[in-house]
């Protein structure tokens, strides 16, 4: 490592582990319909199975209660999200939403334009997940130049 390159981040991957009562239905929904490629799959005694699906780049979005309420209001019009909501960035939000509903998800709110320059829909999906499907309509650079956007940076 040279002195002008920052050290690699200490965390290499965020993996969300979800128990699905109907494993086959959940696997089909997320792998085959949403389109998350299967990275690996394992099985063990007693019928134990796991599939690891590649969801692209992972981020951890931390919101305070006021922002959670605001996001629910913008995307759905009422409070609906549990403490954990999984969001997937896609190229075509409306088409993906329709495909997921056709595959058994329940639409909570249709694709909706947001103040943060995306089109977001909400669904209740297999394995008990409340999900957002979002399509960015502006680049990160464009969004961060807007008032109210940016980074907070580390707390001193």
Mind explaining what this structure looks like?
By secondary structure, the protein is of the alpha+beta class. It has a single domain, classed as 2,3-Dihydroxybiphenyl 1,2-Dioxygenase, domain 1, CATH 3.10.180.10. 24% of the residues lie in helices and 26% in strands. The strands form 2 sheets. Strands 3-6-5-4 form a 4-stranded mixed sheet, covered by helices on one side. It has a two-stranded antiparallel ribbon with strand order 1-2. A hairpin with a 4-residue loop joins strand 4 (106-113) and strand 5. The longest helix has 11 residues, at 23-33. The radius of gyration is 18 Å and the shape is globular.
How would you concisely characterize the structure shown here?
This protein has 156 residues and is α+β, with helices and mostly antiparallel strands.
